[in-house]
TrEMBL record, chains A, B, C, D:
NCBIfam families documented for this protein: PRK09220.1, salvage_mtnB
Keyword Amino-acid biosynthesis applies: yes
Domain Class II aldolase/adducin N-terminal: 19-208
Pathway of action: Amino-acid biosynthesis; L-methionine biosynthesis via salvage pathway; L-methionine from S-methyl-5-thio-alpha-D-ribose 1-phosphate: step 2/6
Signal peptide: none
Protein name as annotated: Methylthioribulose-1-phosphate dehydratase
Gene assigned in the entry: mtnB
Keyword set includes Zinc: yes
Gene3D superfamilies: Class II aldolase/adducin N-terminal domain
Any one GO molecular-function label of the UniProt entry: zinc ion binding
Length: 215, 215, 215, 215
């Protein structure tokens, strides 16, 4: 299915975003973080549009044609392709923070297991790890980094409302887990979003290891 | 040993199936799911025949010549090559579900360990995981997904009878484990069969992790 | 340092062996089974000689020039290169079983940890695993497979004597672990030796997993 | 930002060092030991200078232009690039041991978790592992190898002082961990430094495994 672009979006701009998403997806798939066609990835195109992965594609074999345009409420623009069911969680981030340009959602075993383990607390507290410094605004291992864990639901508006409530409470939010599911994180550009994702995958894995060691 | 095809099967059709099997096998071998020449893979060719891996070959180095033709009772057709000892478990699936076209059997460490751990229950119950939605017909993490674990035996008819008994009981069946051995799963096409396999490998791994964490 | 061959050994024969060893070493190194220049690999060249890896080389980058000739008592032949300190453990196998042509010694984390865990028992008992059938002469998961664990020593004759004592006791021997060290296994050809190595690495990993799960 | 070299350092010498660092970094990144732009690597250039990775670069994609020159107190020389915050820990090693030419600092999950687990003891004691022989000067598994674990701090002079105190106490030092952070190790050349790093990663992993097994 071909993508028809609004007049305000040059083809080169959309292709640039689509290629960047496809490249990142392939590399993240190689880590095993996108099993069984799960996970989705997006980039802001302009104030009103984002490019996002089409639902159900194998993330390890993604190309430009597997990316589509949506508006900031998650509706398809200029295509009959179906965006991920979770597209609203991406556009929520773009609406809330105008300087965020990339949103990544993956589904690694570590992320899924951590989400189940910490679901009863509603949060993963990361403390004492040097790699917390990979998260924007964190300059020392001595601060704490809270990653909320929201209950899973197939009804997107409920998930959106949970994220909104956390943001409105005034607590910082760099990423969140959904129980039994995976992680959402983001950044000002692809490099920052991937640094956040890599750091959080690493830190969640360390926390699981410490618990396995009863430490 | 060369493969002689029945007049009803064009060489291009058989080669297409053989190449698809060999490609999938090489990719699954790279994950480490086919240790020591274990595992076997097949595709339906027509109503009466399937293409299947020849016994004992290194699955990481599979080519078209490592695939042979069998009838729907697992007997070699047009070749003196020996099919896997477990070929009857493949043809049983093709006989039972005419719209299933691919059967995959792998032997990962996670699958083997899970089969031993859950053997006493006779089933692995998967609940609360978003990735259950990767299994055909599952649209929510809230439903349960039961994967039976059958006792191992070197006598194939016993294994066939165990699978038949489960099917005849009317319970859904998307995959099964054999104790101390590995997993069987299938799909309408290669993409679906691989999605099922990837999702189940992931979910079994998550369940083992939760138990290691006493969670 | 160049290798001078005895008149009885054609250069093509030695090169064939050296290339086969180097290829296997590179592939096993990719699995992470040869950390920090550890591990050694050999192939029989004729009744009186074997080709073996030179001491201290990076097994992931091995080429033909990293292989040397030794006699059946582990002494260098036609070269000033130094063979592995453990060469006598290879030639012991060739002397004892004239139809064994390949010996592999690796040093994976699973092998090292298993050797420490089972050292007090002096043996790893493998039972109930389908993959035991990958070991020559084993046709069912119902038989038991015993892998002895010998105490480590830097004094090779002691290790040789321990292996001799096991063989002389009449118990079958397909492989052995050395405590805190790694595994030795072998085969009639490279394919069989690698199948044994892959199967044992897998089965030791499964046994460790079951213990981690208190199963 | 371009690098201007002092007259005493030929461009070919600096490029040789930069290329060697970049190649090692890429290979270590492939193991997953440098998550989220963490880790840093250096080589001595002459008695007064070292080449070191520029802060914040993705270690998996490092090239010659990601390496800069510093003096032996960690100050940038001939460039406005910013060296890693931890550069002083590298130059401390070069100042103390004139025959050490390579320093490697990585940040694997095993290293981070081990640093937290052993922080209360202040040391990891490695005993009974054959791979201890990969550390310079160790000829048997029977000796003990102590790797200190220092508390983490964002104030470099404190870290430098902790390392100095250990050295001045007369105890051997081949590597150290920083709590919640990673490992520092070194060697006379790149091959030795990498052998030390690989061996220590392996041995720390084995120690964690033994504890997971309550062994």
């Amino acid at each position: 299915m071909s993508q028809i672009l609004p007049a305000s979006i040059p083809a080169t701009l959309f292709h640039e975003r689509a290629d960047a998403i496809a490249e990142a997806a392939r590399e993240l798939a190689q880590h095993g973080w996108t099993p069984a066609t799960s996970s989705n990835f997006s980039m802001r195109v302009d104030a009103d549009h984002a490019a996002i992965t089409i639902s159900g594609r194998d993330k390890g074999k993604l190309g430009r044609d597997d990316i589509m345009l949506v508006d900031m409420h998650g509706k398809a623009v200029g295509t009959e392709s179906r965006p991920s069911a979770e597209t609203e969680l991406h556009t929520q981030v773009y609406r809330h923070w105008p300087d965020i340009n990339v949103v990544l959602h993956t589904h690694s075993r570590t992320q899924s297991v951590a989400s189940r383990l910490f679901a009863k607390d509603g949060v993963v507290k990361l403390e004492g790890w040097e790699l917390q410094k990979a998260i924007r605004g964190h300059t020392t291992h001595e601060s704490a980094l809270d990653i909320p864990v929201f209950p899973n639901t197939q009804h997107m508006p409920e998930l959106v409302a949970q994220v909104d409530a956390w943001i409105e409470s005034g607590k910082p939010l760099h990423a969140y887990l959904i129980n039994g599911h995976g992680i959402y994180t983001w950044g000002h550009d692809m490099a920052e979003a991937r640094r956040h994702l890599e750091a959080l995958e690493f830190l969640l894995g360390c926390e699981l290891d410490l618990r396995r060691l009863n430490a």
